[in-house]
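Backbones bend. To wit:
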Amino acid sequence: MNIFSYIDKYSSKNFQEEPFNEVDNIIFSTLSYIDLNNYVSHNKSNKKTIEQVGNNYFQDHPNKEKTILATKNALKVLKYIKNTLRYKNLLLYNYCYIGDKEQQFSAITIEINNHLIYVSFEGTDGLISGWKEDFMMSYKFPVLSQRRAIDYINKNFLFTNKKIILGGHSKGGNLALVSGMYANFFIKRKIINIYNNDGPGLINKQFNSKKYLSIKNKLIHIIPNYSVFGLIFNHDNSYIVIKSTKKNIFAHDFATWVVEKNTFQRSTLSTLSIAIEKGCAKWLNKYDYQKREKFIKNLFQTFEELNITNLMDFNNNKKLIIDLIMKSQNIDNEIKLMLKDFIQTIFNYFKEIKLEELQILIGNKK
């Protein structure tokens, strides 16, 4: 059973009959992947139900958008839940999306009932700026999306009388974690759980801070048995490992996570994930913040020079891949060495992935 069969099974049960659980958390975390501008209010003055938003959205977008896998599956989730008794009357508001050359951020509030809300933070979408921020997290805090997440929490929930659950998938899980750490004291008291769903951890200073200790007991870190992203940077070893029907990077897809009744099936971390965790830690320990910054700036400067702003650009222009390889010859020797070490670190993990599978991941194929 996956999240879609879970929706089918519990579609007729409200949240009194079947209380909020970790599978609902994943379902809600996906909604921030969808571009809901013009469908959901940017404040709480005009709340709309999931049914209203879903029907309006699909009326305007009858065909699936050509986009990355996470967004495709998020749209599928919305289509599944919009007419169900369990989800259709839940309220959506406080929608925010910012996507440009410097940052990628999205968040939405889901009101489950009069006493509980779930705040969903978007993971990395197709924008190169979002991927750049992911890399920047290795040497900088806060990056722009983390600052946006902190502002979003502190701006919107100071006067709410509801309990708050924070969550997100991929980078969104990190944003949920960080926003909880830096929430206003009065807001932090209202936060009951923080779900980091296969998202990165923290760099040293933040991981060892009092801010992290203040929310540590509320954090629920879920990773699939073939996790990559959820094992990057510092994290506690109290994460929950769950089973995915896919291996390698495709285990990051929440649609592959195995559900048993109202929870995910527990599993153990694969030897590949253990190896990549150790390899990434070794690479990060080898290079200080200044060298990491230099490496990442050089890497993404190459994208900028080629006017690559979205992963879909590779689909629209195959020549970009050749140009990217040619451009990489111009970087200095230190960066080349770091790049070589980086590639060597991840090679064993990704060697089984076929080109056709990568094309599906970035939206090149259906």
User: Anything to note?
Assistant: The beta strands are 48-49, 91-99, 104-113, 116-121, 163-169, 191-197, 219-224, 240-242, 259-260, 263-264.
